[in-house]
Amino acid sequence: MASRLTPLLQIPLPPPRPDETYRGAGADGPIDFVGLKSLLGAADFPKAGDRHAGLAAADDIARETARTILAGLTVAHVHERPLLTGDGRIDDVMRVNYDVDGAVYREIAPLTFGQLKDRLLACSGTEAVRLGRGLTGVTAAAVAKLCDIHELILVARRIANRSRARTLLGAPGTLSSRLQPNHPTDDPRGIALLTWWGLSMAAGDALIGVNPAIDTVDNVAAVLHLLDDLRRRAGAPTQICVLSHVKTQLAALDRGAPVEILFQSLAGTEATLVAEFDVTVDLLDEGWQTMQRRGPLGAAPQCMYFETGQGSEFSYGRHEGIDMTTTEALCYGLARRYDPFMINNVTGFIGPETHRDNFELLAASLQDLFLGKLLGLPMGIGSCYTLHAESGLEGQQATTELLAAAGATYFMDVALNTDRMLAYFDTSAHDNQTLREIHGREPAGEFLAWCLARGILARDGAGAVVRGPAWGRPELFCGSAEEFEELVAATPALHGFEHAGPRPADSVARRVRWHQAVGRAAVHLPLDLDRLRAVARFREIATAATTHDEHLAHPALGARPAAGALEGLAAEPFPVQILVSDGLSAAAVHHNLPDLLPLLLDGLAARGIGVGVPLAARHGRVKLAEPVGERLGADVVIHLIGERPGGDARASRSLSAYLVYRVPEAVRPAAARASGNAAIRHEVTVISNIYDAGLPPVEAAAQIVEKTERILRHRAAGNRLEGIVAAAGAG
Fold first, then answer.
1. What is the pLDDT averaged over residues 46-52?
2. Is residue 519, in this structure, part of any structural domain at all?
3. pLDDT-based confidence at residue 646 (cuts at 50, 70, 90)
4. DSSP notation for 476-498
5. Domain that includes residue 110, residue range
6. Which phi and psi angles does 308 have, rounded to 5°?
7. Closest C-alpha to 217, from 187, 256, 184, 182
8. At which of 102, 135, 157 does a domain end?
9. Residue 653 CB contacts under 8 Å (≥ 6 apart), including other chains
């Protein structure tokens, strides 16, 4: 464990250099690549995000030409040319990546990337990790782009990066899992059932972690205490986490909540990290230092958990002209600073704008595992997909099998592959046990002993670990049949507990797949403006996405109005405007708006909050609210938008409310101090999972009104608002 963090300004950096032209031989003449960013992008497997960003090679010839050029460059050549921001800076994420082992770097600096690849293919895993200490994320990405599928698996397979909290992850012969009992409303009964179900299938030895539907200090603290109680009741040797914003977790820790592992999502450019994730390197440093002093696990050497995934930087339009593999590798270089307990990669979580199909997800996932392991991290992979992409369960399973062969430290346990809150699909406890049986793996040692004692696992006559009589029986953790039935009633998308060996029974699998089919259909349902106008008067605006296919593949088009779409609008004397968009589920709008909108309008009027005539947009995305608010001069735009379908058929009707606050000039200094983003113009509070099996529309209307009133009163939204409210409560 690092005993201290290198101060940022003490990390030695090469001076910025102008772009150079790299020339290689094409079939019909030379092919030029201007700058390292262009060369690195062209050398990669083709992926949707890089194509949309103009970074992918035009064809296979250009790609192999770029790879040939890259293979001939030395490590020093790329190391000495840091990739710059659009305004010519070396940002903090890039800076942290240069905190490498100087002696190792000097050893490998003269090697070409082709030679470095050959050395990695021939050496042990221990030696590969030693060499990785001399690599930045960019130089690690460069060698990854030269590797084929076999080579990515071969190198990653040899590397075992262990980490420890209550359990030891990454020991030879083990395969761990992160139990994720998410619930659309954070109902303690549903979280308890999904936790018991996962534990009963030997899942959760890496972590039990909830993504909260409500990211407030009160709720996060409550869920942490709930998970702590569930873990103690079960006696399971594992650790807990609530995957909220790092600021929220630190505030919960101040209140005495058991923040055992501190979580944060990372990005590979400072622009994304700060402007979209509301995080700075200084804040991450503060979190690490706080956990070293006050973390509940005390002497546990590793206490940080990061999630990453190719494409977030591109999706937010803040990739600085850097391809997705390289920005992902920069995330790992940042994570390495904190010697984390866990890294989870969720490439595939975003959708078709970054990775279109199963092969793009497979190649990216193997690259990510290779990169994270090479840079010394304990890597798990959430091999996942969404229903609006051209990917699905079979592709996920093929990817997961290859990742298991490549030695992934852990996978997710999302019950029946279906995340009930985040509306995406990941690996399950059934998958984890299947992989253990196929590949001859076991849970982490401490957790295995617990499973054996509880009868969840057993040993056969030859001493091999097999499923025990309690495997897959969550009711054994409940005090009575009545308690179990109460938990079941509070949990959506269960579909059945029956199993066949380590797999769900066929009757269960058929129900899961049918519900996914309904969700996919909802993605393509058009928004019916006549149904909206039957609820209230609407003004229609068009976005730059002219077709549904454009809308799905190019979210930036749905985030901006079409040319001239706002010309008929002018500033209005209303502090609030309401915008309704289909997003990724017009069904969500159709089903929720009749109950939600009248109550929302009445509630705002009752509080004396003026609101304009609602607006409606086909093919809209979340950030469309920003130009609409600017044009109308609104303080807050309440953007009601369909979430991507997930869970079960009912969940395809799930709506979100994004309360987008336009930060006035007088408040910007305070907002900039709180976020670390000097250019901040908007803050956002989100209320999600609005539908009949989540947050009912009637209750959602009241919450939206209450949050809107708070935003206007405190002149803040998002994390800054929660900080103000928490401070007032503490006082």
1. 96
2. no
3. confident
4. GGSSSHHHHHHHHHT-S------
5. 10-157
6. -140, -175
7. 256
8. 157
9. 522, 585, 587, 588, 590, 591, 592, 691, 692
CA–CA dist 481, 668 (Å, integer): 55
Q: What's the average model confidence in pLDDT over 576-585?
A: 97
3-state secondary structure 153-208: HHHHHHCCCCEECCCEECCCCECEEEECCCCCCCCHHHHHHHHHHHHHCCCCCCEE
At 661, which helix (H) or strand (E)?
strand 655-662
- CATH number of the domain enclosing 16: 1.10.220.70
Tell me the pLDDT band of 3, cut-offs 50, 70 and 90.
low
Query: Of 136, 157, 178, at which residue does a domain stop?
Result: 157
Phi, psi for 164 (deg, rounded to 5):
-140, 135
- Return the C-alpha torsion angle 719, 307, 619, 55, nearest 10: 120
The kind and range of the H/E element at 724 are: helix 718-730
CATH number at residue 663: 3.40.50.11240
- 609-620 CB burial, b ≥16 within 10 A, e <16: bebbebbbbbbb
Which residues have C-beta within 8 Å of that of residue 116, sequence separation ≥ 6?
A: 75, 108, 131, 143
- How many folded domains does the chain comprise? 2
Whether 684 maps to a domain, the answer reads yes
Average pLDDT, the chain: 96
Please report whether residue 657 resides in a domain.
Answer: yes
Question: Among candidates 499, 497, 505, which has minimal Cα distance to 474?
Answer: 497
With beta carbons less than 8 A apart as the criterion, state whether 470 and 200 touch.
yes
Q: How many other β-carbons are positioned within 10 Å of the β-carbon of residue 657? A: 24
Residue among 133, 123, 131, 130 at smallest CA distance from 158:
123
Q: How would you classify residue 548: left for phi > 0, otherwise alpha for psi between -120 and 50, otherwise beta?
A: alpha
Enumerate the β-bridge partners of residue 638: 578, 659
In this structure, the chain runs to a length of: 731
Whether 418 maps to a domain, the answer reads: no
168-169 and 615-617 strand pairing: unpaired
pTM greater than the 0.90 cutoff: yes
**Whole-number Å distance between alpha carbons of 114 and 63:** 16
